[in-house]
Amino acid sequence: MLADTNAVANIAVRDLDVARRFYEGTLGMTPVGREGDDVVAYGSGDSEFFVYRSDFAGTNQATAMTWVVGDGLDDVVRALRDKGVAFEHYEMPDMTLEGDVHVSGDLRVAWFKDPDGNILNVVNG
């Protein structure tokens, strides 16, 4: 039923202008549509996601969105750090921290937050 249908991430934010500066200026996203004054759609690869205004922004304590960046993970982490992004460091079983990247075998992942505290990450795949 749903397995053949595209899924879209939704990221809640308190202030859409602040969020736009982060998602567009820091992460380099380009809006592909706007649904009224409280929602912006962004294209990301072959998918899209929505950033919308909500009083419940930043209340999720888990990863809200992941970008699979493959072998370019270190370059992406460096570019984000150069733009002022601070990476999260977690104590996780079976993972070691190498700089800002958590490593478990072949898996490499770096977590960071948007201005509302939404947890985002980049992973090598």
TrEMBL record:
The organism of origin for this protein: Novilysobacter erysipheiresistens
Domain VOC: 4-125
Name of the featured protein: VOC family protein
CDD domains, A to Z: VOC
Domain of life: Bacteria
